[in-house]
From TrEMBL:
GO MF term list: [glutamate-ammonia-ligase] adenylyltransferase activity
Domain Glutamate-ammonia ligase adenylyltransferase repeated: 47-284, 555-801
Protein name: Bifunctional glutamine synthetase adenylyltransferase/adenylyl-removing enzyme
Enzyme Commission (EC) number: 2.7.7.89, 2.7.7.42
Reaction catalyzed: [glutamine synthetase]-O(4)-(5'-adenylyl)-L-tyrosine + phosphate = [glutamine synthetase]-L-tyrosine + ADP; [glutamine synthetase]-L-tyrosine + ATP = [glutamine synthetase]-O(4)-(5'-adenylyl)-L-tyrosine + diphosphate
Necessary cofactors: Mg(2+)
Species the sequence originates in: Lysobacter niastensis
Length: 947
């Protein structure tokens, strides 16, 4: 809405700026200023005053009443805010006048800077907000002191002082208050109690009276006007509810009776006076009411209802030219941004801002609003808010309606830098049209199956009628079986118990699902999986709303469940994953190692509740794992990268669980001073080749400066070995604990020194000695893929030193080969599930384990002369290191890379479809097996069974 300096100069020479109106304003100010009126002889000063006079009768009236203010504005161009008054207890009768004069003076300063182009719209909104806050703070401080004198201080049962918390809602809470707005306030206090003075009052009475007096001091009309209009109707039950509420009563209300419009209102809530810290604590308590943990498309229904009510009011009162409530007005921009916040804010904290313009930018950055649309909405918002301010600045009236008179229209237009009303009106219509287009696109029903659709008619006739021939015609080969499943669903208590709104949604969603399932490659399989999911979400209206509102999510759902048993199973078990189907990131690039780890380690503790923390962590793991699975299923990234990402995700989980376990053990037994602890990942975790549903091979190390004699420093001390054994047990237990989101991981600790017979946790010294003197060759093989995944960095570095020294011991090649071959043949005899029909991708001859053994042997054979072999842990890295160390040639390396990628991809495909990792042999599988077999034999490793 901002106009250029040239535009503003042009507006100054408009006839209005030289009109009788401007001349009268100058004359009036000269009379008010007396001798000081000579300042207006300066033409530059006079021109500024004329421009202000065109824009605001209120400003000229204030300058005439407070003559000293003009000199101040001229001197510093209004750069410095007017200071709030001191409300002395001895002259209480002066308080209303002092507050009102302060408010009018500071408001006039804001007009001066706005009209002269010294401030933009954002500055004026922020200035109006600060003005209201200072008035509230000043008035409340004076009243509180008075109440303390009369009634004492309110204290809770523990004797702690309680203060009133004043919440600002609406534009005050959003720090975007318009020039002549009322202020929406809600009064609360943290705990019940009683004041400790000679005339004690219960907390509710005390704070209700204090709040009422605060409203009266600001709101009452006096000879000096008003300070701020106060609206208390946004409190629970509105005018019928109590004036001040305890936090507990408020929380109880919102849990049981909170309505959609209150969620919108409390999005912008902010403590603006009184006990600010307590207010922030309450907002944190209220966050789950405002922002749901899932994608909340049900919020759109509430928004539609609110918009319909406003539209009816606009039509009834003929408010089409209301730039706040009318079509394409301010309210539509606010609703659009707030609706997207409510839908996604529970999942994305960056979207929980109170201010509209930063929220729009956050929505653009999160790709929920297009960049061009975001820019247009921001421009429209600034234009409309700037126009709204000027409408109100004219006479300090709380109006949002365009003026009807020609003179007022001309004054508004010219003061804003337009040539006239027609020019301004054209710009207004353009901006409102853009807003309406974006708003209606958000609220338009995303999918509606017409009554004429045969699948819709069929479904609505169930369970008593309906012809299964409709299903056959749609594409279901087993129409009779499908008909039976759908009749069972229609008869189920879950469907019969739905609310009218939820049933309406189901009646739209289910025919769309049937149609999509019928078009899939396996319609009956898709249908069975979809119905299992529907049974789980029938009582969760937000998920039905998501599928109803978003056809993209519905289409992805059908695709996912028809192509992957694992995804279908997880969606049915954890409907929260439905959110991922609509997350824009699910089809974009996947996060890297640091982002995956940060997503896990940043999971906050849930009020000391370990189970709730684990559930939150598992929800993060499930969502990210689901995203990786979708990328595999869609072929958007190689299997090698997906397996690596799953390992990184597990790293983050183990890090977070370690922190939680340490906290719990330390709370009971203190900590071991100076001690270090590390979690080592072996197997597929260490080798960064984790699958979906894989367990974690973990080994635990510790080290203390005092050796075995160290003890923890808590009230119930433990010697170091027992303390760390307790910590390791806690980690294993937490990883395997069942929560509402399932368990994190199964853990295998059998790769520790001495296996199942050994201690769960090894000291660094004992681990080192074991690896050097007693470990078997196969244990050194396992060490090739081992790495530190969590815990003390320096201890992980010590482990790396021990690992390198152990693996680089010079070995007799024939003995090494014999040990490796012997172990591999024993494993195959016990674990290989290959048969004439199918090949075991992992344990079969020429499979992934053969390749792992081949690479491990290369490290054990040659790392004493080629230390670079010690660096990689994953198979592709080991293949490259072996090539660079001349253990294999380039052609062999290429064939092994191809074989590894193929076998890993086929294995992940099996896992995604909940099939054993056994596949029929084909030309590519045969080639991969042959490459591994030939490479192993070239190294003296014949893993085939002896004849």
């Amino acid at each position: 809405m901002s106009r250029s300096d040239d535009d503003l100069k042009d507006s100054a020479v408009h006839p209005l700026a030289r009109s009788a109106l401007a001349t009268r304003a100058l004359s009036r100010l000269r009379n008010a200023l007396g001798e000081a009126g000579r300042i207006l002889d300066d033409e530059n000063v006079a021109e500024r005053v004329r421009r202000v006079a065109v824009a605001s009768d209120f400003a000229i009236d204030t300058l005439a009443r407070q003559p000293a203010l003009l000199s101040k504005l001229i001197a510093d161009q209004g750069a410095n805010a007017v200071q709030p008054p001191l409300l002395e207890p001895s002259v209480r009768s002066d308080w209303p006048a002092l507050l009102r004069r302060y408010r009018t003076a500071e408001s006039t300063r804001l007009i001066w800077r706005d009209v002269l182009g010294l401030d933009g719209v954002d500055d004026t909104l922020a200035g109006s907000t600060r003005l209201a806050e200072r008035c509230l703070e000043t008035a409340l401080a004076a009243l509180e002191a008075e109440f303390v004198q009369r009634h004492g201080v309110v204290r809770d049962r523990e004797g702690r002082e309680q203060r009133l918390v004043v919440f600002g809602l609406g534009k005050l809470g959003g720090e975007e208050l318009n020039f002549s707005s009322d202020v929406d306030l809600v009064y609360t206090y943290e705990h019940d109690g009683e004041s400790d003075g000679e005339r004690p009052l219960a907390a509710e009475t005390y704070f209700a009276r204090l709040g009422q007096q605060l409203a009266r001091l600001l709101d009452e009309m006096t000879a000096d006007g008003f300070c701020h209009r106060v609206d208390l109707r946004l409190r629970p039950y509105g005018n019928a509810g109590r004036v001040a509420w305890s936090f507990a009563a408020m929380e109880q209300y919102f849990q049981h009776e909170g309505r959609d419009w209150e969620r919108y209102a409390w999005q912008k809530a902010r403590p603006v006076a009184g006990d600010i810290e307590a207010g922030e604590r309450f907002l944190e308590m209220l966050r789950p009411f405002v922002y749901r943990r899932y994608l909340d498309y049900g919020a759109l229904d509430g928004l539609r209802a609110m918009k319909a009510a406003i539209s009816a009011e606009v039509a009834r009162k003929e408010l089409a030219d209301d730039i706040k409530r009318g079509p394409g007005g301010i309210r539509e921009i606010e609703f659009l941004a707030q609706a997207l916040q409510l839908i996604r804010g529970g999942r994305e904290p960056a979207l929980r801002g109170r201010r509209l313009l930063p929220t729009l930018q956050a929505l653009v950055e999160a790709h929920h609003v297009g960049e061009e649309a975001g820019t247009q909405l921001a421009d429209a918002y600034r234009f409309l808010r700037g126009l709204e301010n000027r409408l109100q600045m004219l006479r300090d009236a709380q109006t949002h309606a365009l003026p009807g008179g020609d003179e007022d229209r001309a004054r508004i237009a010219v003061a804003l830098g337009y040539s006239g009303w027609e020019s301004l009106r054209n710009e207004l219509d353009t901006q409102r049209g853009r807003v309406t287009a974006e708003f209606e696109a958000l609220l338009a029903p995303r999918r509606r199956v017409t009554d004429a659709d045969e699948l819709t008619v069929y479904w609505r006739a169930l369970p008593d009628s309906g012809d299964s021939a409709v299903l056959a015609a749609a594409g279901f080969d087993e129409a009779s079986a499908a008909d039976g499943l759908l009749r069972d669903l229609a008869r189920s208590p879950g469907v019969r118990g739905l609310s009218d709104q939820a049933r309406t949604r189901l009646d739209r969603v289910l025919p769309a699902l049937l149609n999509a399932a019928a078009q899939s490659s396996e319609p009956m399989l898709a249908l069975r999986r979809l119905l299992a999911l529907l049974q789980n979400i029938l009582r969760r209206s937000a998920y039905l709303a998501l599928l109803d509102e978003q056809p993209a999510a519905l289409a992805r759902l059908v695709e996912a469940v028809s192509r992957s048993a694992l995804l279908a199973e997880r969606l049915a078990a954890y409907p929260l994953l439905l959110d991922e189907l609509l997350d824009v990131r699910v089809v974009g690039p996947l996060p890297g190692r640091e982002a995956l780890i940060a997503a896990c380690t940043s999971v906050e503790e849930e009020d000391g509740d370990a189970e709730a923390t684990l559930q939150a962590l598992n929800e993060v793991r499930q969502a990210l794992s689901f995203r990786i699975a979708m990328a595999v299923r869609d072929g958007r990234q190689p299997a090698v990268e997906s397996a690596q990402q799953l390992a990184w995700l597990a790293d983050g989980v183990v890090m977070r669980v370690l922190a939680l376990a340490e906290q719990e053990v330390a709370a009971a037994h203190g900590r071991v001073p100076g001690a270090r602890f590390a979690v080592l990942g072996y197997g597929s975790l260490g080798g960064e080749e984790l699958g979906f549903g894989s367990d974690l091979d973990l080994v635990f190390l510790y080290d203390t400066p005092e050796g075995e004699g160290a003890h923890s420093d808590g009230a119930r001390p433990l010697e170091a070995s027992r303390w760390f054994a307790r910590l390791a047990q806690k980690i294993v237990a937490l990883l395997g604990a069942v929560t509402g989101a399932g368990r994190l991981f199964d853990v295998d600790v059998r790769l520790r020194p001495d296996g199942a017979k050994g201690l769960l946790v090894s000291s660094l010294a004992s681990f080192t000695d074991y690896q050097r003197t007693r470990a078997w060759t196969w244990e050194h093989q396992a060490l090739v893929r081992a790495r530190g995944v969590a815990g003390d960095v320096s201890l992980c570095e010590e482990f790396e030193r021990v690992r390198s020294q152990t693996l680089s011991i010079a070995r007799e090649i024939s003995t090494l080969n014999a040990d490796v071959v012997s172990m591999r043949r024993r494993m195959r005899a016990e674990l290989d599930r290959s048969d004439a029909a199918a090949f075991d991708l992992k344990q079969g001859e020429g499979g992934l384990v053969d390749l792992e053994f081949l690479m491990q042997t290369a490290v054990l054979r040659a790392s004493n002369v080629n230390p670079a072999l010690l660096l990689p842990r994953n198979t592709p890295g080991l293949i490259e290191a072996a090539r660079e160390a001349a253990q294999i040639d380039a052609a062999t390396a290429e064939s092994l890379h191809d074989a590894h990628a193929l076998l890993l991809a086929r294995g992940l495909d099996c896992t995604l479809d909940r099939r054993p990792r056994r596949v029929p042999c084909d030309e590519r599988i045969d080639a991969a097996r042959a490459a591994i077999r030939m490479s192993a034999r070239a190294q003296g490793l014949d893993f085939a069974e002896e004849s």
